[in-house]
Design brief:
Length: 240
């Protein structure tokens, strides 16, 4: 049995085909976004077809590694990479304008500690990233799919949580944030049944943690705060 594609209980960790947690949207590309995809992608872009990655070889060093899933237009990810040059970041996003924008900004700022997939996150985790190789997996403000009939599209499902756990190092963290309270409650429910994780929240704030200072605020989050939306952060550590 290959544990790259199977869990310890024999269940498959490969994503199911069909139901996606996103919908591809067509949109106009700016000059900067087009430049990112055409000129910067060959240097910083990765594909699922590239297969299993040797991360030390990819970045040319041994360093902490963080994956961010669904980085949108990439502002917070670029800020993290620039603020923490000793950490390597891998961003995963399916929407071309966001990928192009991030690549353009990364190039303009001379960042060398950032790589990008324009792919389904489940495919990247299962086919490209080694087991026990990541210090953190970040999932900030994923689509909440609020209608009950669409809940199956939410990325936070038991199979995703288990797949993320296998890619985290012991002690590595899964950090989720949402401004949709019902989705926060869904995350709590899924994590309550997940094995091999420890909630890092203190007793007085559990199951959530206070907003971490290291998580950059996004325009999306700031807009929600102006509208009176709450934000819920959950940080779970992989147990040994």
């Amino acid at each position: 049995m290959n544990d790259e594609t199977n869990g310890n209980d024999g269940t498959s960790l490969r994503p199911r085909r069909g139901v996606k947690s996103y919908v591809l949207r067509a949109g106009r590309m700016t000059t900067a976004q087009t430049r990112g995809l055409e000129e910067v992608w060959p240097r910083l872009g990765l594909r699922v077809e590239d297969g299993h990655q040797d991360l030390d070889r990819l970045f040319g060093r041994h360093a902490p590694r963080i994956v961010e899933i669904g980085f949108g237009m990439g502002a917070s990810l670029v800020e993290q990479a620039e603020t923490h040059p000793g950490v390597d970041f891998i961003g995963i996003e399916v929407h071309a304008p966001g990928v192009g924008k991030l690549l353009d900004e990364a190039d303009k700022r001379g960042l060398t500690n950032l790589r990008v997939y324009r792919e389904d996150a489940l495919e990247v985790l299962s086919r490209c990233l080694p087991e026990a190789s990541l210090d953190a997996v970040q999932l900030f403000f994923p689509d909440p799919w609020p209608k009950k009939k669409h809940h199956k599209r939410r990325i936070v499902q038991p199979a995703f949580i288990e797949l993320a756990r296998t890619r985290l190092k012991p002690g590595g963290v899964l950090h989720m944030a949402t401004d949709w309270e019902a989705y926060a409650e869904h995350m709590v429910e899924v994590m309550a049944d997940a094995r091999g994780y420890r909630n890092t929240a203190e007793e007085d704030t559990a199951p959530y943690v206070p907003r971490p200072e290291f998580r950059p605020s996004t325009k999306f989050e700031a807009r929600g705060e102006r509208l009176g939306h709450g934000v819920w952060d959950l940080i779970f550590a992989r147990e040994a």
